[in-house]
Specification:
This protein is α+β, with helices and mostly antiparallel strands. It is built from 16 helices and 12 strands. A hairpin with a 6-residue loop joins strand 1 and strand 2.
């Protein structure tokens, strides 16, 4: 971060809060003090952020707790050499507000937002844990499909041209258009860097050295990822979360809450759906690396693949129902599809629309898998596998499926063809 940027932040009133500063600040926020109870001196404050970008504090009082998130003026994972605008906190707050309205109960309640400090105080989710940690442990979440598909169907449909008049949709696009710095991270780290030599790339070496080199030389794959990048750049289909992985979902066995939408913008719907599916597939391939004895996680792995299937099937069903019942947008005007014949023809078009969306979903899922193995930011599904050869084997299987999904997308007409391929690759042994 440059000296000029430091002076600009100071003049704006922004400062990075530490424990003592945060205690004094929150003491002046009635919505927070009411939930915490007790005197500020009695509160416990701990910094728990393990993400890539921000500070996250847990504050507990005598009667309750809150989570406080403050954006840093740089990428936390890298440091001050990678500046990042504080405005991302504004877009996260805006997205949480929209999502709470569209999918009530599926995001944390916002208690307070401070634009100057890039700070948001939210309900403390307890006893929820980050879903990715639960999947590493082999935990099954029976209600997850219902929760995540409702979130996806409602947030995507009700921010799309199927539900909104064009003017309202364009206002939404404009409201998030300034979040381009976060989009740029996605554009580079997901759609470009894993396919070239980039300073911040890393992988499980030496086992994946040859695989990484093959991907850097794979022109068919480069064309496929470039087509996906173009869609990401140009298809403002709906308000997407933008970073919807299993580290951005907090769960219990009966509740799911989607968090951290700071990458939100108007983009292709398949990017969000694909992100969920990609992370479930990575959890599936990583599972063998967390076994205590062979076959011990077979039931969990079967649940994961069933969940992959049900995420798409239930999303498509709910999205289709919303389209039939709540279509008020300027796309597919009802005046053009009157009568029984018109309704039948529109239904055929709905199915074609969903088929195209499925193909987008599969491609974006593949892109998310590749970036998590060969790019900058990895995930604990693989990283917590201590034996590097076993880890690399799990990752190589994931990459094998991802390459097929991206380059041979048309050979996956249904979600069951994806899970069938995952089962076949589950025991494939790469030549290291």
């Amino acid at each position: 971060m440059t000296a000029v940027q430091v002076r600009q932040q100071a003049s704006s009133g922004y400062r990075i809060l530490r424990e003592a500063d945060l205690r004094d600040y929150l003491a002046g926020v009635p919505a927070v003090t009411a939930g915490l109870g007790g005197s500020p001196q009695s509160w416990t404050i701990s910094e728990v952020g393990d993400g890539n970008l921000n500070l996250v504090f847990i504050v507990r009082g005598t009667t309750g707790g809150v989570a406080v998130k403050q954006a840093l003026p740089y990428v936390r994972l890298v440091g001050e050499s990678w500046p990042l605008p504080l405005s991302r906190a504004h877009y996260e707050h805006l997205a949480l507000t929209h999502q709470a309205r569209l999918a009530p109960g599926l995001v944390p309640a916002v208690l307070h937002h401070d634009e100057t400090l890039a700070l948001t105080a939210m309900e403390l989710l307890e006893p929820h844990i980050i879903m990715r940690k639960g999947l590493v442990a082999g935990t099954i979440y029976p209600d997850f499909v219902g929760h995540i598909t409702t979130f996806l169907a409602r947030t995507l449909f009700f921010s799309s041209d199927l539900a909104l008049p064009a003017a309202v949709k364009k206002e939404g696009i404009a409201a998030f258009a300034g979040n381009h710095a976060l989009c740029k991270i996605t554009e580079d780290l997901i759609f470009t860097d894993p396919y070239r030599l980039a300073e911040q790339n890393r992988w499980t070496s030496p086992w994946l050295d040859a695989t990484a080199a093959d991907i850097r030389a794979d022109l068919d794959l480069h064309v496929a990822i470039s087509r996906l990048k173009l869609k990401f750049l140009s298809s403002a289909e709906a308000l997407v979360h933008g970073d919807l992985h299993t580290g951005s979902i907090m769960v219990t066995e009966r509740e799911s809450k989607v968090i951290d939408p700071e990458f939100a913008f108007y983009g292709p719907m398949g990017f969000d759906i694909g992100a969920v599916i990609a992370n479930l597939l990575m959890a599936y391939f990583a599972s063998v690396g967390h076994e205590r004895e062979p076959g011990a996680r077979a039931a969990f792995e079967a649940w994961l693949l069933m969940t992959v299937e049900q995420v798409w099937i239930e999303f498509a069903r709910k999205f289709g129902e919303l389209w039939r019942e709540a279509a008020a947008g300027d796309a597919y005007p009802t005046a053009l599809f009157e009568g029984q014949a018109g309704a039948a023809r529109l239904e055929i078009e709905r199915q074609a629309y969903m088929a195209r969306l499925f193909q987008d979903t599969i491609g974006f899922a593949a892109a998310k898998i590749i970036r998590r193995i060969l790019g900058l930011a990895h995930n604990i599904d693989f990283e917590l596998i201590e034996d590097t050869k076993i880890r690399a084997t799990c990752e190589a299987r994931s990459l094998r499926l991802a390459r097929m999904m991206m380059v041979e997308t048309g050979s996956f007409p249904t979600i069951s063809t994806v899970t069938d391929a995952a089962r076949r690759i589950r025991d494939w042994q790469p030549e290291f």
